[in-house]
Fold this protein.
Amino acid sequence: MEKKSYAAREAFTLEIKKMVSEKVGTEYQVERLTAGKNNGVIKETLHVSRKSSDYALSFYLEELYRSYCKGISTEALSENIAEIVREEDRTPVQIQEFLSRSWVEENLFLRLVNFEKNLEQLKDAVYVRRLDLAAVFYVLTEQGEGGIKSFRLPRELWERMGLGDAEEYFEHILENTERLFPAELKRIEDSLAECIRKEGGTEPEWLKKELQEESRENGRSLFYVLTNRQKLNGAIALFYPGLLSRLEEKFHGGFYLIPSSIHEMLLLAESEEAEAGELNQMVREVNESHVIPEEILSDHVYYYRKSCGLCSRLG
């Protein structure tokens, strides 16, 4: 079965590569390459580059094959890729033209990753270490309804601009990140209902009942979801200036921060009947069975109380 599955995927890859090459023309080179992702995950990509310049786009073959298995033809997929390439080529982003020091400082933002799991990728990156995590420096080039475009800031470029110690910029870039990606805190029930509606579904009866009961109880919830409005790489919000201190007032004391993924944190009041060891076991089990490998942030929970600050809770 595995051999048949591999053969089918290999045939798809060769076919989509051939069709994209035909559609974009001889000015472009279409290659099958590998790309390093978060947490050391390696993925195969279809890399389309213009032969006469540094312009290039990459498309993950796993995602393309998943779409194909859902019924989208290779013709439709290859035409979509070709159209994206043509559209980007009509308005290419010439990074060199606007990479001034002031522009970079204005558009820097942070993404949070696990430090130990990303040692190789962090070698040429600019980052600040916090606990067992790394806040990595990125530059935002475009943001709109279709999403964002950005690139990880190379250490070589940072040093060439003479920007100095990354630690000195940390608070400034946190403020930038909060401005570009404002924090969002919701009850987990509201967040779940929102996801279901976004997918075009209807909340199950148990969730409707839960939402009604909690509405009568002044909006109290066991878990809260901390992310950003874009719900993309939102775990960094836990470092937003003064945010945890304000949340302590909401929880009337210390609280746990459970790393759901690089995109969000689950918050749980300390007063609830939960121990760090049990929560850590839950995080490990969820990471193993439900979280995409490149989106895992940590295998243990964190804890915050104003008197002692933010710390890891192992066990």
The chain has a mean pLDDT of 85. Residues 290 and 296 are 10 Å apart (CA to CA). The longest strand covers residues 133-144.
